[in-house]
Automatic annotation (TrEMBL):
<keyword id="KW-0963">Cytoplasm</keyword>
<dbReference type="GO" id="GO:0003723">
    <property type="term" value="F:RNA binding"/>
</dbReference>
<comment type="similarity">
    <text>Belongs to the SmpB family.</text>
</comment>
<dbReference type="InterPro" id="IPR020081">
    <property type="entry name" value="SsrA-bd_prot_CS"/>
</dbReference>
<comment type="function">
    <text>Required for rescue of stalled ribosomes mediated by trans-translation. Binds to transfer-messenger RNA (tmRNA), required for stable association of tmRNA with ribosomes. tmRNA and SmpB together mimic tRNA shape, replacing the anticodon stem-loop with SmpB. tmRNA is encoded by the ssrA gene; the 2 termini fold to resemble tRNA(Ala) and it encodes a 'tag peptide', a short internal open reading frame. During trans-translation Ala-aminoacylated tmRNA acts like a tRNA, entering the A-site of stalled ribosomes, displacing the stalled mRNA.</text>
</comment>
<keyword id="KW-0694">RNA-binding</keyword>
<dbReference type="GO" id="GO:0070930">
    <property type="term" value="P:trans-translation-dependent protein tagging"/>
</dbReference>
<feature type="region of interest" description="Disordered">
    <location>
        <begin position="134"/>
        <end position="162"/>
    </location>
</feature>
<dbReference type="Pfam" id="PF01668">
    <property type="entry name" value="SmpB"/>
</dbReference>
<protein>
    <recommendedName>
        <fullName>SsrA-binding protein</fullName>
    </recommendedName>
</protein>
<dbReference type="GO" id="GO:0005829">
    <property type="term" value="C:cytosol"/>
</dbReference>
<dbReference type="GO" id="GO:0070929">
    <property type="term" value="P:trans-translation"/>
</dbReference>
<dbReference type="InterPro" id="IPR000037">
    <property type="entry name" value="SsrA-bd_prot"/>
</dbReference>
<dbReference type="InterPro" id="IPR023620">
    <property type="entry name" value="SmpB"/>
</dbReference>
Amino acid sequence: MSKKDGFDKPLAQNKKASHDYFIEEAIEAGMVLTGTEIKSLRNGRAQLGDAFATIRNGEMFLHNMHISPFEQGNRHNPVDPTRARKLLLHKAQTHKMLGQVKRDGYTLVPLRVYIKNGYAKCLIGIGKGKKQFDKRQADAKRDSQRDIQRILREKQKVSSYK
């Protein structure tokens, strides 16, 4: 992602999501924030650790995303830093996501929060929960790939000296 495309670096990322879920599809949604929340978000004061998304009355909401209050904020700072925040999607996108989530074992997982063209965006993924053996399998695969890459790097170093 380059600056030319209008993307900035992720301000908050849910690293545990790929460990706990098989992410099948991801969709970008706008976020409704107050003025001081966007200032805190731009300062990188957000956490997605326990966050999840729900759909109520045809609207999507992000729950448990923690945005710390802005220090230089005014009296209109939100009282609850983990309040539910509305996500902006087209109606067809919301209905599509709702249909996919109704299947067994699927949930809406926030993956990343970033600024795009001056607007706060949240990448929401549709994930199916992993079982314990799936997690162990993924960890073993990642470790073996890391070992292979390490061995290849060592071989390249040795061959460059000859």
